[in-house]
Specification:
Largest sheet: 2 strands, antiparallel
Structural class: alpha+beta
Helix content: 40-55%
Keywords: Membrane, Transmembrane, Transmembrane helix
Order of helices and strands: HEEEEH
Strand content: 15-25%
Protein name: TRASH domain protein
Radius of gyration: 22 Å
Length: 87
């Protein structure tokens, strides 16, 4: 392959990458304006009942004292409350 072809392919690849990243940034900015959490900033938390990982922004929560627990479903949250809060 000629060096000119390689350079052209590299430039095209770089331009496609830049276009992709620009579109991604715009989409994330639009989500932030609408109050939706950006997918890149959402931390996964482990459900203490079943062990499933769930995004913090979508998780059901339960606070006990200073600690906050995150759950994938109401069923898991209720099981945790029944088993650990004496209720």
């Amino acid at each position: 392959m000629h060096p000119i072809k390689i350079i052209i392919l590299l430039v095209l690849g770089y331009l496609l990458y830049r276009l992709y990243m620009a579109g991604r940034k715009k989409r994330l900015a639009a989500e932030a304006e609408q109050g939706q959490p950006a997918a890149l900033n959402d931390v996964l938390e482990q459900d203490p009942s079943c062990g499933t990982y769930v995004p913090r922004g979508q998780a059901l929560r339960h606070r006990r004292g200073e600690r906050e627990f995150f759950f994938c479903s109401e069923k898991c949250r209720q099981a945790f409350i029944n088993n650990n809060d004496g209720g």
